[in-house]
Write a structure and sequence with these properties.
Distance between the termini: 14 Å
Structural class: alpha/beta
Strand order of the largest sheet: 1-4-3-2-5-6
Strand content: 25-35%
Largest sheet: 6 strands, mixed
Number of domains: 1
CATH class: Alpha Beta
Order of helices and strands: EEEEHHEHHEH
Helix content: 25-40%
CATH superfamily: Ribonuclease H-like superfamily/Ribonuclease H
């Protein structure tokens, strides 16, 4: 059974990479996925912030046995799913959505810069692209260092540290 760690409206701020489109506000989403062993027990985490850096949601979840790359993709899928469930398409079109990932491979594959060879990853990218269509907003993926992805990385480790293997 998957266990979720769900915390919202945290007062801590992570001041980086906040931007505004000329007319649109920006939703800032930090995602991370990780596995202990590769493959091994895995978890995902994401943090959603508004344009001012206010944390709207923190979410962490154990996903079972997976590779690091599958966990990274699954974190993006979960974050997009959260957006779809919590905002109407009309609301989402008012936002520019920036994803920040500490996986260079996944950020570049989702941006179309790298080819996807792994069949499992191809299935996940199809899921990501289907969710992107439902959201109907401009979504951009950026690679950042693990240090700048602190909150999402922390959620992954909190979930994994809470599991007994």
């Amino acid at each position: 059974m998957a266990e979720n760690l769900f915390i919202s409206n945290d007062s801590k701020k992570q001041a980086l990479l906040i931007s505004n489109d000329s007319k649109k506000q920006t939703l800032i989403i930090f995602t991370d996925g990780g596995a202990r062993g590769n493959p091994g027990p895995a978890a995902i985490g994401f943090v959603v912030k508004d344009s001012q850096g206010k944390i709207l949601v923190k979410f962490g979840k154990y996903i079972g046995r997976a590779t690091n790359n599958v966990a990274e993709y699954q974190a993006v899928v979960e974050a997009l799913g959260w957006l779809e469930k919590n905002y109407s398409p009309a609301e989402l079109t008012q936002w520019r959505i920036n994803f920040y990932l500490d996986s260079k491979l996944v950020a570049n594959q989702l941006s179309g810069k790298y080819k996807i060879k792994d069949l499992k990853l191809k299935k996940l990218i199809v899921e990501v692209k289907e969710l992107e269509k439902k959201i109907s907003s401009k979504i951009v993926y950026y690679f950042i260092s693990r240090e700048k992805n602190y909150h999402a990385d922390l959620l992954v480790n909190q979930v994994l540290n809470g599991k007994n293997y």
